[in-house]
Amino acid sequence: MIPIHYLLSLSGMLFAIGLYGALTRRNSIGILMSIEIMYNAGLLNLIALARWTKPTPVSGLLGGQVSTLFILAVAASEVAIGLAIIVAVYRDFSTIDTEKVNLMKW
Amino acid sequence: MSAAAFFVLAAITIFCALWVVSGRNLFHNVLMLSVFLGGIAGLYLLAGADFVALAQVMVYVGGVVVLVLFAIMLTLEVTDIHLTQMSHHNVLAAFVAVGMGLVMTLVAKTTPFGAAPQGRPIASTVAVIGTSVTKEWIVAFEVVGLILLVGLVGALLVGRKEQP
Asked: Core-most of A28, A62, B38, B140, by most CB within 10 Å?
């Protein structure tokens, strides 16, 4: 098996790449995709560390994998709501460029 | 052998993530995102999580990517498809991201984790996950169902047309 810090450093690098995308993209859907990259990097971290946690009586060493399933479901629903918001914003402004949707800028 | 598989999957995921955050064509970015999610599923398989890898493929590649494509089709502008510009904070964001990545890599490398707790990974995780979801994590299971219901109703409410 590979050493654990390979997976953890990979997840750190993917998180950093997603963070760069979330900070620089102008398209709102591009920002959402970068947030998805960050989510998946965090989940990779959870799965990699699942065997190092203290074993629980029922799920043994798989507590990290069960948590990952729940966070996966929550992340999918969050993407759905975010996209609904983007569609509603497009209906009002006819653009989803974050530099142009600036009514609250002073 | 698993080290070679890890490096191949790591190269695929890093390449696809870099394309997603800095690509020009929006459709290409979404397709690269789906390949990225498939690469992450391969890494889950490498870490011994077979059910989570399949759930990832079904939910993310089969659900979330399709949803993002729908949203792109619904919000497409004419000038948007070939030129997705970057904002003006490129250098500062790159500095922040590179710094954070370096810090996390260093922390992962220098933490004394010790030896792996078990030699052989578990053969099939589906039975154990099923038992633990209905016995130990039952409250979280029900709450996630509630979250999904609220998300569904909320997305419908936010995205519907205004009644004249």
From this structure: A62
Cβ of B128 within 8 Å of Cβ of A62? The answer is yes
Q: What's the whole-model pTM score?
A: 0.91
- What share of chain A has pLDDT > 90, as a percent? 56
Residue B82 pLDDT greater than 60, yes or no: no
CB B84 within 8 Å of CB B24: yes
A42 touches chain B (CB under 8 A): no
Instruction: Tell whether A46 lies on the interface with B, counting CB pairs under 8 A.
Output: no
Comparing alpha-carbon positions, the chain B residue that sits nearest to A19 is: B97
Could you identify the residue written with the tokens 């922040």?
Answer: B96
Q: What is the pLDDT of residues B26-77, one digit of tens each?
A: 889 999 999 999 999 999 998 888 999 999 999 999 999 999 999 998 888 7
How many whole angstroms from its chain centre is CA A75? 7
Per-residue tokens: A100: 């142009």
- Interatomic CA distance for residues B106 and A15, integer angstroms: 14
A19 SS3 class:
helix
What does the alpha-carbon distance between residue B125 and residue B123 come to, in Å, rounded to a whole number?
7
Q: A42 CA to chain B: closest CA distance, Å? A: 11
Interface of B with A in 3-62 (CB under 8 A): 3, 6, 10, 13-14, 17-18, 20-22, 26, 29-30, 33, 36-37, 40, 43-44, 46-49, 51-52, 55-56, 59-60
Q: CA of A36, closest CA in chain B: separation in Å?
A: 9
